[in-house]
Design a protein that fits this description.
Two copies of one chain form a homodimer. The first copy, chain A, is of the alpha+beta class. Helix content of chain A is 35%, strand content 27%. In chain A, strands 3-9-10-16-13-12-11-24-27-23-22 form an eleven-stranded mixed β-sheet, with helices on both faces. Chains A and B meet through strand 2, helix 2, strand 3, strand 4 and helix 3 of A and strand 2, helix 2, strand 3, strand 4 and helix 3 of B. Strand 5 (91-94) of chain A pairs antiparallel with strand 5 (91-94) of chain B.
Chain lengths: 491, 491
């Protein structure tokens, strides 16, 4: 069988791109930097959405929907925010087209120019805080815990499917609180939800930490993130939770009467994960044969392929498969029976490997006689023959086992690729030869961070929340440092 | 208690707007014509989405996602399509902002002008068929049954919350087929899904029919719709399903090799329902006290209000309510216990009436003694005292009963407001004095339809699919007609 993908060793970036396209997850569209998310890719995203949505609702959040458009003037209200986003905004200037005078095609109708240009939302803090102003008068109106699932646009110059696209899908939570403590608690609660989701559903270990000032969200007082390590040794920021302080409340004049009858500015958070998670999921586990999906997010958990020569055989196999499918489905397992006569079994096996279906069953006339079935697991590529009787129980266990195994594997990989560097030379050598997460001391200044980044292309991914305090000296300046921070090259 | 809403009789349009805002469903945003869908309104929309999404998937459709942007030139490919949409398009011309030279605010960076302008999708046929071109080679690739949930933008001059907004949310299905018959079958299958959804979930009777040429979707060969009658006697088109023939396949050159090895153009359908359904739902059932929601779409099905004077009483009531809630929840019923001490019971009763919660329970110390509970149903405003023992069974039945009752009521209303007119004078008088659906003969020409519309503002809503054939003469021209069509003033 012909090789479908570039190998990771040969060309990791090409492998990733091949995989996204060949597995039918997404493709580039006719519009620069915008992708089409294909049904198989979208089915994974829907699973992610549904789990996250449940987690948000279980912690008291409601969904709502705010406009796609943001008046240009709103963006300027918060100084850091406009600085961060103005350079990558899609701008709507007109609201009508007309026939070209030449009679060929259409053109913009210059008489239909907007008085104030509209920005396609790159994120919705400004339009939402402008709205919250009318919703919040007293402490009784707080907290306001709202999330929205939406598309956003950031005009990126270099794009990659899922990882960085001009338009992407995401959720953005925007909450309002009466006190700083409550807003901080919310910020950390969401960070924890993101980390749990990554671990328990994506089977992807992440490190929770604080971003440095350089990497902070434009308009935030503090940004927290979850960071994952990909197989090429590069880090991928997979979700962020921002403590916004009173910045947006001040920019949009949102105050409330507290319990003591005094007027105060409202405290805010915002947080989001996007279709970028798809990129993380793909890169965290997959191999040169294709996707490896955690069973809990796989659109198809079990694929069944009949092996037969004659139509009569297929009929008998199909009857048995129906029985098996019924039992699997009753156990909450998603099954696809692929009885297409247009493709050979070998082709189908490769196809389900490529698509990362966790378990593949094959059954032929001999199996019917012997009461057996062949089971292949995608993660280890192991094949075994089992009695068909009770196979649903074996598969149920196995799906949990696979979920656990690929998490373990990713965790082992991360541990094997996490290094300590105690001098700048050692650091540079590690960045150059090993990649991965590098724990080192840093003096806490943006200047030093910038110097390191300029010289090595490694950046501080985060100041990890859970790590032992350790007195040390900045590897560059020798100034004191109280804990190691995590450096890596990053997506 | 002060009147919250205008009455329907006084000012129907004002009543509707008051209701949408006061019940917390939606409000106008800072962006002209764009709405904010508030959490309570969005919760209803989410329920609609989830039911429809299940219906689409059960009939073999998958979700996917296509870009928000459409290159301007794509729009011109199908002649009718561009004619229908060019005049209401939001156009992106630039991709960057910069600081104003004055130092105040930001402005469009003229050096960042797009070579080809991008249109915000008003509907996605063009970008999708441009994509399908690469997905379809042979009959084996067909049918392609894809849906997307998305936002779209049509630059409307006069907007009304939910009914007509510049940006709205919707689903748009786009399918590709090997034969005309199969595409027609799909068109009708979806129309039927929409009608079933309206009837069984929204409790809203609708008429399925064919649109006349005047009202056809721009680019369709045939458009079918479901039409509902609102309480002011105006019709509301609630969903459309289009048979597109080979129009888009030809415009985007999408061909396939058929089973005989011959190249053919692909057959297409598209279909959609939008947040406009929210407007239909609100207007179909509600009264001067507020919303009336069908239980199957109500975010809260049962609200429970404690009646107490002392804290000790509340404690005992809450213990009992917990017990009741557990039983209701076990029956799949959504419950809200409102024990806020910031509002009086009377205020809460009015609030749940306004929000259309189907069943409201009230329980006080006397009830605890007697083992009773007060139950009020929103649709009839009836109140009764029941034994608390087994109340979950009574409520379960009652929710079905309410669903059925409000459907019946809407159907009775429609029947009482459907008239036949046999002369143009009679027709004009009915339109003027009664409103409603008017069944009349029409000669099948656009000219006559236009004349009637100009003179009466009533339009042909549809040529109903289920109606007896009846030979007659056009009420305007006297030319022959083989069946009555449905006229009405419309939203």
């Amino acid at each position: 069988m012909a090789k479908v993908l570039s190998s990771r060793k040969e060309d990791y970036a090409q492998w990733y791109n091949d995989l996204v396209i060949k597995a039918g997850l997404a493709e580039n569209s006719a519009v620069r930097g915008c992708m089409v998310i294909k049904p198989y890719g979208y089915a994974i995203w829907e699973k992610m959405q549904s789990v996250l949505d449940r987690m948000f609702k279980d912690t008291g959040h409601s969904n709502a929907y705010f406009p796609l458009f943001i008046p240009k003037s709103f963006l300027s209200r918060e100084a850091d925010h406009v600085e961060g986003f103005a350079k990558e905004c899609a701008v709507v200037t007109h609201y009508r087209l007309k026939n070209s005078p030449s009679g060929k095609g259409i053109e913009v109708d210059e008489t239909a120019r907007l008085e104030e240009e509209l920005i396609i939302r790159p994120t919705s803090e400004t339009i939402i805080w402008n709205t919250y102003k009318n919703w919040i008068q007293s402490y009784r109106d707080l907290p306001l815990l709202i999330n929205q699932w939406a598309n956003v646009v950031r005009w990126e110059m270099r794009t990659r499917l899922f990882l960085r696209t001009t338009e992407f899908l995401w959720q953005e939570g925007h909450t309002a609180h009466a006190t700083k403590d409550e807003a901080m608690e919310e910020t950390m609660k969401i960070l924890d939800i993101y980390a749990k989701f990554a671990k328990n559903w994506m089977a992807m270990p992440v490190i929770q930490g604080t971003k440095t000032e350089n990497e902070r969200f434009a308009g935030a007082v503090e940004t927290y993130s979850i960071e994952a390590l990909m197989q090429d040794g590069k880090a991928l920021q997979s979700g962020t939770s921002h403590f916004l302080g009173q910045n947006f409340a001040k920019a949009f004049d949102v105050t409330f009467l507290n319990r003591e009858g005094k007027l105060e500015y409202v405290w805010a958070t915002s947080w989001g994960v996007s279709t970028r998670l798809m990129g993380a999921l793909i890169m965290a586990h997959s191999d040169d044969k294709g996707l490896i999906l955690p069973p809990r997010l796989a659109p198809i958990q079990v694929a069944i392929v009949p092996i037969y020569k004659k139509a009569g055989e297929l009929e008998m196999i199909s009857a048995k498969v129906e029985e098996i499918t019924r039992k699997l489905t009753a156990n909450g397992i998603t099954v696809k029976y692929d009885d297409r006569d247009t493709h050979k079994p070998g082709w189908k096996f490769a196809e389900y490997e490529l698509k990362g279906v966790p378990v593949r069953l094959a059954i032929g006339p001999r199996d019917l006689e012997k009461g057996t079935i062949e089971l292949a697991r995608r993660d280890t590529l192991e094949k075994n023959v089992y009695p068909v009787e009770g196979i649903e129980n074996r598969i149920k266990e196995l799906l949990d086992e696979i979920q656990e195994t690929i998490y373990r594997k990713a965790l082992d990989f991360r541990e094997a690729n996490t290094f300590r560097a105690d001098s700048y030379n050692e650091f540079k050598e590690k960045v150059e030869t090993k990649g991965g997460f590098i724990l080192a001391h840093w003096d806490g200044t943006s200047e030093t961070e910038q110097k390191i980044s300029n010289e090595t292309r490694a950046t501080i991914r985060c100041i990890p929340l859970e790590s032992e305090k350790e007195e040390g000296k900045c590897m560059v300046t020798g100034k004191p440092s109280s804990q190691r921070v995590i450096f890596a090259k990053a997506y």
